[in-house]
Structures are given as structure tokens and as C-alpha cells.
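quick one before i forget lol
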Amino acid sequence: MKTNFTAAAFSMILFIGNIFAQQNFISSKQLILSAPETEGNALKKPQPMANGCDTVNYKKGIGASKVWTAYTWTAGNPASGLVYGTNSLNDKAKGDYIDLSSFSTATHITGTVVWFTRAYSSNPAKTVSVEVYDNSGTSGSPGTLLGSKTLTMAEIMANTSKSFLTKVEFPSPIAIPASKKVYVVCNYSNLSWTNAPGTDSLCIVGSDTLQEIPGLVWEKTSANTWHSLDDLTTWKLRKSALFIFPYVTNNIVAPTATITVTPANSTVCANSSISFDATGSTNTYGNGWWASPNSGYSSANVNGQTLSLTYTLVSTYTVGYNSYGCGTVATASTVVTVNATPTVTASSNSPVCQGAAIQFTSSGNGTSYGWIGPNSFTSAVQNPTIASASAANTGTYQVQTTSANSCTNTALVNVTVNPCTGIDPIEDEEGFTIVENENQQYFLLIGPKEQNVKISIFNINGEEMSSIHSAGVARKELNTSSLPMGMYFVQVVSPARTMTKKIIITR
């Protein structure tokens, strides 16, 4: 499994001329001023060897205490290619000789980290093999192949485009030979340098010369022979090293990862929470949660192997858990679907009189509705009615709507039921009186004879429902047959006065 860790951008490249003879080639180096130092979610930095795991040479090349200077070495003439990668000489592989004698307790190599640069192929399916050899070859050169892992150029290009190092996890741990001496090699023989547009390109970052002991960097030529770059007949990049950092360990127990999700179908509605439990996982060197995309939720109760997320945005998310071994990682992930909650509003014709009908109205984009309220009221109708209201129906009513994806939302409406015994027989000082007829089809306004009187009927919201003018008539019928039941106000306006009285239409 290949993962990676974040690298800072290659913020600046400084060209420095340097002349090294290899036949008629001139080697030059380009200094990488910003080295990758930050790790990402997919890689847990190993513990020191005292804890059973270490990354060989990592601190020499990466971090505040590094002693290697990072360069991209080219063959001088750009048409000739890259010293530590594809070039016109058709070299097949480059790698580091690594003496593990100081890692006396280490028994296996589980993977490695490689700093690639200048990665490109018009055929991203082409492959590069990362290989481990013992030193049983001629004069201690690479001999028996102990293990390998194949990467596609697509994987490497994805990492270099983001300034990531590339982490390689071998299919199974590779036993360290008794000699404690190995070679970790990048075999790019499937790539071809032609100096034409779209040519294959790949380079391993290397240190400056005179920064290491002799004989670290080795090359496999087009003739399938191995030799050290400290050999005076080659590139003469003496005492340099490649940025290849193998993981060594004495604990090869593989980590495991598993996630239990609540709710089990990993589907929630917006503004809801979902819980993740990875306590069934095992790890040697730590764990970590990750999520993509990394917005639209907030986390809570993060405690080792458990996680709770509250989602506010409608989307599809992937949540994962990593268990780390030494240079290995086991990953479990699950897809979370967050559905939208439906919209809903509620209203009524409140206030109403006892005996009158209460009419409820709801609207929204749900597919079903349900009402509850005082006096054990329930209804599965979107717009229900209580035919004859009583005082017990006064209170707060709730409507809940449910969408096709089973998300719900609620709205509230308050209802007031008044006793309503009819018209208040109140007269003002001038004797205006309103009298209702038997079936409330109209009300009779009786009062002093005045000129230019306007008589208006308003509902409880202050909206004028009707109006008439009276030219000196002391008795006037107010037709209310078209008005719904409820409370209204009759306003009488004359040049001399304004009077308002309440009427109740109950029928």
C-alpha cells in the first residue's frame, strides 16, 4: 500500500554550476531550498529504534538537524538528462548502499521513503520498481534481490506534483541479511529518455558531494553492471547520498483497522451527529483519523480510537482510520451520506371562539405530515381542522414533516380559543350600538344621525375587510355573510368622532 506525507512546496530552485567529468558530460546541480518536513495523515513517523522502529538516514536528509543538502543533479546539458534518473546513457537504476550494523536489533525492512522529483511520463501506467538487494554481488555490489514493490508513474507524479515524498510499503517485511548490509534501489529501466517532448523523466534527489562516506550511491548501467559513483570513471559525485530512507524494525506484527459506525447505515440528516468506533483495530506505533472533504462538519469526543462528527452541510464524506506499524499502515474507511432536512411552516386561524372551527395550515417540501397538540390532538393530514373548538384546545401545536430520505423537520403554532358570547353591548357616550341578527348574516349599526360616516370592518391583523359610507342614516346593516368565523372590529369614523367596537362571528 502506498501512502505519502506532505512536503512543503519546492519554493525556489537555485542553479549552481559544477563540473564533473563522465566521458564528455558536465554534471550540474540545482539546489532545492525548501525540503519536505511536514507529515500528512497517511504516514506516522516511526519511533526511534529503542522503541522497535526507525527510519534510516531520515534525520540526515529531512528536518531541522539535517546534514545533507538536497539537489537535483542534471547531466549539464539538459538534453542529456538526469544523473540520478533517466538520461541519454540509459542507466537502469540508482540506489543507496546501507550498512545496518548500528541497528543491531533490527530484523526486517518493511518499506522506504523516496524523495522523487522531475517525474513525468506521457504513459502514467509505466512502472518503477523499488528493490532491496543484499551485498553478495561482485566486490560487495548488489547481489540477491530480497524484495521489491512496483509503483506506477501515476502514483509518483501525483506525489511530486504536490511536493510529497513517496512512501513505499513492501508487500511483506524483508528479512535483513546476516551481513547487515543492503542496497535500496530505484529501478526505472521501464522509462526511456529521448530528449523529445513528452519524454519520460524521473530523478531521485541527492545530497551534495563530500557529505557522506565513500561508496553510498550505486548505479546499474545500460550494460547491467553495478558500480559506485565514487568510482573515478563515472560521474565523480564522490561521498554523496540519495534521499532514500528505509524503515527497519524488530516488530513485524501488521496493524489492523476496522470501523463501527452509528447509525449503522452511515446516513444522517443535516445537523445530526454520527459516531465512529475503531476500538477493534490494533496498532504498534499509533493511529489517526481523517476525513474528506475536510469541511462541513465539526468534531467532538475525539479520544484515541473513537470519533463523533456533527454534519451541517449536505454532501457525501469519507471518514477513515489509520493504524500504524513500522513503515506500514492499515486503513479502514466508510462513506457518510448527509441528506437535507425538509422545510416546513405552520399557521392557523387563531384566535377562534368556542364552538368555531380551528383550521391548521402547513407547507413545505416533505412527503408526509403529522400533527400533535393539546387535548390529545393528533392528525396525519397536512392541513387538519378541529370542527368545534373548546378551551381545552388552547395551546401550542406541532407539525412534523418527513422527506423521502426520512429526514424530518418541525414547526410550531399557538392557538387561542376565546369564550366569545357574541357582541359586546357597549355603547359610547353618543349611543352607538351594534346588534347582530339571528344567523349572523349581518349586523345592525344603530347610532346618532351624522353626515359623512365611514363604517369599516377590520380583521384581527388590521386588514380592512369591507367598508361602506353612510350619509346621515342612523341605522345601517353590515353584511358579514362572506366573512369567515372569527373576531373582527367595526370602526365608525365621522368628522366629529371615531368609534371602534368588537364583533365575533361564530355562526
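fyi Residues 260-339 form a domain with the Immunoglobulin-like fold (CATH 2.60.40.1080).
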